[in-house]
Design goal:
410 residues; TIM Barrel; three-stranded antiparallel beta sheet; 16 helices; 41% helix
Length: 410
């Protein structure tokens, strides 16, 4: 098995945020404990099935997301212990929200094998938090960062820009407050209104709630300036880290590595050979001879129903190119050369030239001497030159156009 990453989904929240379209459920306190017990029992059974099949032997990174995994308390700790009986991850992340992160939980998670906590901070302005339906306040968020750090764990903070009522001044205060707390990693996302969410419906009635894209771009620029000045390097379109604290699990997603998904709505992606080894664990999903990769989504709690998407070799190559454009490093010459064995070189060169022409990307050195010289897309693709195609500032801000150029090669 070549699978190196495991994602586990915990679809429970104390209250669903107004912008969220993720799969999550909320229960009255009297019903929550029983619902969690039943769900985690099914997670344990699924985990053991993967483990007994040898699917977890090579796992290097684990990510438990949601929902709000920290809402599960001691069950989350037990889940971490069980995962670590089947593998020895070098990075193990659990998501948490400040209101459900108790003083004791980070220490217990650390003892169970967790190395990292990702906190949903979003903003340090209490009015903005209330506007998006968050149930913690700024003080609780800052206290949660300190609690995680005191337990010896890495901490990552998620922040959002373009929130209702947010201003340039309030965004700068959020950045300054988070930087003063000194997390190891920060992710910055522009708010998007997803159809069907409460905030989407509210914005349909009140246009002032719609995110302003120019304001969001300005916020992203300010965040980049503040974070880089504080020693955080941008390694992905939304991600900043102190050196050595990049999220290895997310990097696995962006570099085309195989991953397993466990839990309702959890997604996994397997090479065809690995899927064939585990096909019995995905009822109702069959192999397909022309598939190079299989993407699977668990549709129920008990793992009896799955959706499957089959990617051809060409689609997989185009996806790898597209995802590489998310990374500050960009598309390396080795990846371009491999892709040219699958995608016609003329089409691949045309996409690169288009990215260059639109100012979305540029050639940068991909050799130890650090000199890119005068190269063409055809030179790099043919292996006659060493350079990587890295996103420019415009390509970072307007990534969707860049991504579409390469996914269009599918």
């Amino acid at each position: 098995m070549a699978v190196t990453a495991l994602y586990v989904h915990v679809p429970f929240c104390a209250q669903k945020c107004r912008y969220c379209d993720f799969d999550s459920r909320s229960f009255a306190p009297c019903d929550l404990s029983a619902a969690l017990d039943a769900y985690f029992g099914q997670l344990y059974a699924r985990l053991d099935a993967f483990g007994k099949a040898g699917a977890l032997d090579q796992i290097r990174t684990v990510y438990v997301g949601g929902g709000t995994p920290s809402l599960a308390g001691e069950r989350l700790v037990e889940l971490a212990r069980r995962i670590c009986t089947w593998c020895a991850p070098v990075e193990f992340t659990c998501e948490a929200n400040p209101e459900s992160l108790t003083a004791e939980l980070p220490t217990a998670l650390a003892k169970a094998g967790v190395t990292r906590v990702s906190l949903g901070v979003q903003t340090l302005d209490n009015t903005e938090l209330a506007a998006i339906g968050r149930i913690h306040d700024a003080d609780r968020a800052l206290a949660a960062i300190a609690t995680v750090k005191n337990a010896g764990l890495d901490v990552s903070c998620d922040l959002m820009c373009g929130l209702p009522g947010q201003t340039a001044a309030s965004w700068k205060r959020t950045l300054d407050g988070v930087l003063a707390a000194a997390p190891h990693h920060v992710s910055v996302y522009p708010l998007t209104l997803e159809e069907g969410t409460p905030l989407y419906r509210m914005a349909c009635r009140d246009e002032s709630l719609e995110p302003d894209e120019d304001f969001q771009a300005a916020c992203m620029d300010v965040a980049r300036d503040c974070l880089t000045a504080a020693g955080y390097h941008p390694y992905e379109v939304a991600s900043y880290a102190l050196v050595g604290h990049e999220c290895a699990h997310n990097i696995a997603y962006w570099t085309g590595q195989g991953y397993l998904g466990l839990g309702r709505s959890a997604a996994g992606m397997l090479d065809a050979e690995d899927f064939d080894c585990l096909a019995g664990l995905f009822p109702g999903v069959s192999s397909r001879g022309d598939a190079h990769r299989v993407r699977l989504v668990q549709r129920d709690d008990a793992a009896t129903a799955f959706d499957a998407e089959y990617l051809s070799r060409r689609e997989a190559a185009a996806e790898d190119l597209m995802l590489a454009c998310r990374m500050t490093h960009g598309v390396g010459s080795d990846l371009l050369a491999r892709a040219a064995n699958i995608i016609p070189a003329v089409d691949l060169a045309s996409a690169c030239d288009r990215a260059l022409g639109l100012g979305l990307a540029t050639w940068v050195p991909d050799d130890v001497e650090g000199h890119v010289g005068r190269v063409t897309s055809r030179d790099v693709i043919a292996g006659r030159a060493r350079a990587r195609l890295a996103p420019t500032h415009l390509g970072w801000l307007d990534g969707n156009v860049l991504f579409e150029l390469f996914w269009g090669l599918a």
